[in-house]
Amino acid sequence: MERTLSSDVHTATTWSIVLSILMIVAGVLAIASPLMAGVVVTALVGWLLIFSAALHLVYAFRGGRATAIMWEILLAIVYGVAGFYLLANPGVGLVTLTFVIAFYLFVEAVLELALSYQLRSESGAGWLLFDGIVTLILAIMIWSSWPSSGVWAVGLLVGVSMFFSGITRLMLSYSVRKIVA
Questions:
Q1: What angle do CA 7, 9, 11 make, to 5 degrees?
Q2: Residue 151 DSSP label
Q3: Helical H segments across the chain, by residue range
Q4: Separation of alpha carbons 62 and 16, rounded Å
Q5: DSSP 3-state of 146
Q6: Domain range summary for the chain, segments of one domain joined by +
Q7: pTM for this entry
C-alpha cells in the first residue's frame, strides 16, 4: 500500500509540475505581450458575462413572483449586453477593466493601510503596511497613466500573477515529492 501511495503522489506531482511549467510559460508570454493578454482577459470576461446572462435567464423561468422573474430577465439583459459589448469592443473593454482594477487596488490599499494602523502593535503588522504601500503605488501608477495604461496593466498583472503562481506551484510540488520520498 505504501508503494501505491508513493506512486500516486509521484503521478500527481508530475502533472502538477507540468501545469506549473505551462503556467510559467503562459505568464512569461503575457508579460512579453501585455496588450494581447489584456485582450484575451477582456474576451474571457465578456464570455463569462454572457454565460451569467444565460444562467439568469434560465433562473428567471424557474417560477416565482412576476417581479422576481422580471428582475432576473433584466439582469440577463444587462449581463448579455455587457458581455457582447466587451466582445465587440475589446479595446474599450480593456480600458474599462484597467480603470476598475486601478479603483479596486486603491480601495484595497486604503483598507490595508487602515488595518495596519489598527494592528500596529501586533507582530507582522509591518507586512500589512508594506503591502498597502505597494498596492497604493501600483494603483497610482495605473491611474496616473490611464487610459493608456489599458495597453499594459491588465495583461502585465495577469502575466505576473500566472508566473508567480506557476513558480509557487512548482516549488510546492517538489516539496511534496521530497516529503514523500
A1: 70
A2: G
A3: 2-32, 34-60, 66-88, 90-118, 125-144, 153-180
A4: 40
A5: coil
A6: 2-180
A7: 0.68
